[in-house]
TrEMBL record:
Residues 29-189 form the DUF4136 domain. It comes from Sphingobacterium griseoflavum. Keywords: Signal. This is DUF4136 domain-containing protein. Residues 1-20 form the signal peptide. The keyword DNA-binding does not apply. InterPro entries: DUF4136.
Length: 194
């Protein structure tokens, strides 16, 4: 019976872990007129102490092509010569650890004979609950993609946003980048280029 409880708890943990979403955070220069920006350009990405997940052509293409689409949808036009605003991205992948919990939850009997120890008759089904406690820790990787906007005239950062998510495989992290970039630019001040 305990094995069934372990299997259920583990399955629930895996399901919830796979549904983990990207967390977004943003900040901007207060009282900044983002409507003054009509053209944009790109600075080289900032090197980080990353695990090199995003230091390849596919990751760069996923980031830049999605960002360009988002910026153009905001009314900005790409320019190599003297753009009004410059963007750059900073990829980071950290090793982290988290506690793994054990729960003494379990299922009750089901069917005409029920499940459980011994013999007997019974009908119905049930659910048992209890408390959970840490039984160890697991290591995982957490990815961050930071995108910054710099005012070209005074060379100051006027906007910054970050998308953060758990990642287990480099390929999945790279494939997730377009979705993360789109989520980041939803936080860009709406008056840009309009």
């Amino acid at each position: 019976m305990k094995k069934l409880g372990y299997i259920f708890a583990f399955s629930l943990f895996v399901l919830l872990s796979s549904c983990a979403s990207t967390q977004y955070n943003t900040t901007k220069m207060q009282n900044q007129d983002f409507g003054q920006y009509k053209t944009y350009g790109w600075l080289p990405p900032v090197d980080s102490l990353s695990k090199n997940y995003f230091n390849n052509d596919i990751a760069r293409a996923n980031i830049l092509s999605t960002a360009n689409k988002e910026l153009e949808s905001l009314g900005l036009t790409y320019s190599k010569d003297n753009p009004d605003i410059l963007f750059r991205y900073i990829p980071i992948v950290n090793n982290k650890s988290r506690l793994v919990y054990h729960s003494n939850m379990g299922w009750g009997g089901m069917g005409p004979w029920g499940w459980g120890m011994g013999w007997g008759w019974g009908m119905g089904m049930g659910w048992g609950g209890g408390f959970s406690y840490p039984v160890g820790s697991e290591k995982f990787r957490y990815a961050h993609l930071i995108i910054e906007a710099l005012d070209r005239q005074n060379n100051t950062v006027v906007w910054q946003a970050r998308g953060s998510f758990d990642t287990k495989q480099p390929e999945r992290a790279i494939n997730k980048l377009p979705k993360v970039v789109t989520g980041i630019f939803k936080n860009f001040p709406a008056k840009a280029g309009r």
